[in-house]
Amino acid sequence: MLKITTLGELTQLGRRRLSENFFMREMLYSEVGNFHQVPNIPEDPDLAIEAGENLCRLVLEPLRAAFGHIAIRSAYRSPTLNNHCHELYKQGVADSWCTCNEDNAAYHIWDRRDASGYLGATATIVIPSYIDHYERTQDWRSLGWWMRDHLEHYAQVQFFRTLCAFNIRWYEGPADRSIGYLDPPVRETLTRCGDPGFDDDHGALYGEVLVAALSKSVPAARSKGFRT
Description:
It contains 9 helices and 6 strands, in the order ααααβααβααββββα. By secondary structure, the chain is α+β, with helices and mostly antiparallel strands. The chain has one domain (about 5-220). It has a 6-stranded mixed β-sheet with strand order 1-2-4-3-5-6. The model has no long low-confidence stretch (mean pLDDT about 90).
């Protein structure tokens, strides 16, 4: 696919099905892009699609199968939009927090490989069926341990305070597979490759919690992996 130059081409890109339940259009939405009137359009649509297909098929679909609907808060970010946000952030606009393009390649910038030549893709998502439990307990760790045990292809997960939203990344290169929490100045790492017990079964840390938390919103038959 050539660079997008017409509305028709952008419409076709939005219709692109990345996996069974996810389409490119929802990955392109950007509040900051809309507010500042900076289009969020891939420079290399084919590379963005390739990265997005891997993220959706290997990471997001398994989450959806277990927890139901997945809400996309932020996903693809074009180099133009990311740079605009980064410049705003440097000027003190906290809501436009973005790292520079070099650091965000193969993260939110899906259509640029990183300095090592690897492809990657990140999405910021919310799991609606988990929100009520989180708002009562502030417990993000149970969900983090479940992902450690059940998501084979995640490269990195970082939780945030609001809505228990988290960044989750697919990456074709080597990764530390870290899971953590960031609410500046608080930063916590739950686990990562090489930590004691990283390869253990962690069901005792989330099984009963997730069954109780999701019983009203996700039928038990879909809550696979939740051991009591």
